[in-house]
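#struct-help
A.M.: can someone run this one for me? Single chain, 133 residues.
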Amino acid sequence: MERVGAARDLVLGYVDALNAVGEVMRAAIPSLERLAAVLGLVHSRRISRSGRIGTYSYTVHGAGCRFVSDNGTEVDVDFAADGSEIFDLWRLHRYGLSLPEPLDVTDQDLRTAVRSLQPLLDEVRPGWFSVAS
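D.P.: on it. Structure tokens below:
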């Protein structure tokens, strides 16, 4: 049960870190209403595919973006067709390993933790989650 508690804390930490990324990005780019709009800014060449904004470096990839804070914490997120932020167990695991004090949890513990956090989180498709709106 202690492992699931650690995994739950990791998931909540990821959600907090994702919210912090959004705040920094919106402060730096006031026209940015949703984090997913970063993709449009890259496609229109208003910002480069990778760079630095505020306290984060970023790299846009496929349907998402990877943000790395000054302390090395990695928040990788994909965007659904409607612009919502989605993530999977792999992204949560990477986040845990990138923490200043790395946390390595199993996929099963992460899966249990994510399910215990419903209705805070929605499973938008098998294995992919978003923060409930």
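A.M.: thanks! The mean pLDDT is 93.
D.P.: also worth noting: The CA atoms of residues 4 and 109 lie 5 Å apart.
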